[in-house]
Design a protein that fits this description.
alpha/beta; PyrdxlP-dep_Trfase; aminotransferase; 12 helices; 14 strands; Aspartate Aminotransferase, domain 2; single chain; PyrdxlP-dep_Trfase_major; binds pyridoxal-5'-phosphate; DegT/StrS_aminotransferase; transferase; 37% helix; Aspartate Aminotransferase, domain 1
Length: 375
């Protein structure tokens, strides 16, 4: 058995090597490294796949969030509601733009922001909400969108971990993660479900005037070269990355199915193990399992992590510290005890290896070792 990895990008590459290599070679042949035709082609392909009217490629998922907030004209001092339990990027761009992050706790089973608490987070300065579709399934978008619409707040979906997840509204309407709110953002970091071979990101919207603004801000605030209508940033998806992503997008459904197969096998193996809580499935969303994350009870998480490490099984803690308690963000007034669910989760979550190339014998070994820890 090969050494087990959290994500096996090498085996994945080997399986699509022919397609990827020729896509890269084509870029090399034309040397259109920036804004080559592959960028537009990929954006169109991704729009077609997700059902978003507009896709604006950019340099990474963090830029995508920043550009989204700039395009929505959020002004310094404005407040944006964000979950305390997520990756730092979401809150980082809020702080960078001089906005104020207003943290909200998450639900203990699906990890989405606790929408019951939205009302209590409102102030006259609230301008937006950023639901994060953590680990690969959608937040309760129906509730969040209704809530936001009534108060004229903007909704930016952080879809970095959930590309391809499908949400069903109570009236039967079906749409993909990232296309539900005013703007959706995603990341093509190599380990993400649709990952490139470097950095990359994209922004989704169904609103044409917002799309134009997003495009302009991502390109130095210009529509016409050297004429700058607004302050922008330089955030581009490389042609090479776009070419690779076009190839990989054709495999995304198959990748999501593989991840689900791995998750189902883990679920079946762990659902009756005392001390383990398996991932809960959100009611109205499919899951694309960017992470397969267990909750380990009885204060045993770190001990299990160490035990697995000894058996050469990697595992990861996403995330060890909630954002309101991160040193950089203490200035926003966070204190221990403010968000008990997020704080507790940071002590309990453990993500196991999950990827598109997981072999049955590898997974059997992981299952056997995790189970043996609890017996
Ligand atoms: C990965 C990630 C990002 C940032 O994406 P980058 O491409 O690394 O900038 C943002 N939010 C979440 C939830 C992520 O997982």
């Amino acid at each position: 058995m090969q050494s087990i990895q959290m994500v096996d990008l090498r085996s994945q590459y080997e399986r699509i090597k022919g397609e990827v290599d020729s896509a890269i070679q084509e870029v090399l042949n034309t040397t259109a490294f920036i804004n080559g035709p592959q960028v537009k082609k990929f954006a169109e392909k991704l729009a077609n796949y997700t059902g978003a009217k507009h896709v604006i490629p950019c340099a990474n998922g963090t830029d995508a969030l920043q550009i989204a907030m700039m395009a929505l004209d959020f002004k310094p001092g404005d407040e944006v509601i964000v979950p305390a339990f997520t990756y730092v990027a979401t809150v980082e761009v809020i702080a960078l733009l001089g906005l104020k992050p207003v943290f909200i706790d998450v639900l203990p089973d699906t990890y989405e922001l606790d929408y019951h608490q939205l009302e209590s987070k409102l102030s006259p300065k609230t301008v937006g909400i950023v639901p994060v579709h953590l680990y690969g399934q959608c937040s309760n978008m129906e509730y969040i969108l209704d809530f936001a619409r009534n108060l004229n707040l903007k909704v930016i979906e952080d879809t970095a971990q959930a590309i391809g997840a499908v949400y069903t509204f109570s009236d039967g309407r079906v749409a993909q993660a990232g296309t539900l709110g005013d703007i959706g953002t995603t990341s093509f970091f190599p380990s993400k479900n649709l990952g490139c071979y470097g950095d990359g990101g994209a922004i989704f919207t169904n609103n044409s005037s917002l799309a134009e603004k997003l495009q302009m801000i991502a390109n130095h605030g210009q529509k016409k070269k050297y004429f700058h209508d607004s302050i922008g940033v330089n955030s581009r998806l490389d042609t090479m990355q776009a070419a690779i992503l076009s190839v990989k997008l054709d495999h995304l459904n198959e990748y999501s199915s593989s991840r689900n197969r791995v998750a189902d096998r883990y679920d079946a193996a762990f659902k009756n193990v005392k001390g383990i809580i398996i991932p809960a499935r959100a009611k109205n969303s499919t899951h694309v399992f960017h992470q397969y994350t267990l909750q380990i009870e009885g204060g045993k998480r770190d001990e299990l992590k160490f035990f697995l490490q000894e058996k050469e099984i990697p595992s990861m803690i996403y995330y060890p510290v909630p954002l309101h308690l991160q040193k950089a963000y203490l200035e926003f007034g966070g204190k221990e005890g403010d968000f008990p669910i997020s704080e507790e989760l940071c002590k309990k979550v453990l993500s196991l290896p999950i990827h598109t190339e997981m072999k049955t014998d590898e997974q059997d070994y992981i299952i056997e070792m995790v189970s043996s820890f609890f017996n």
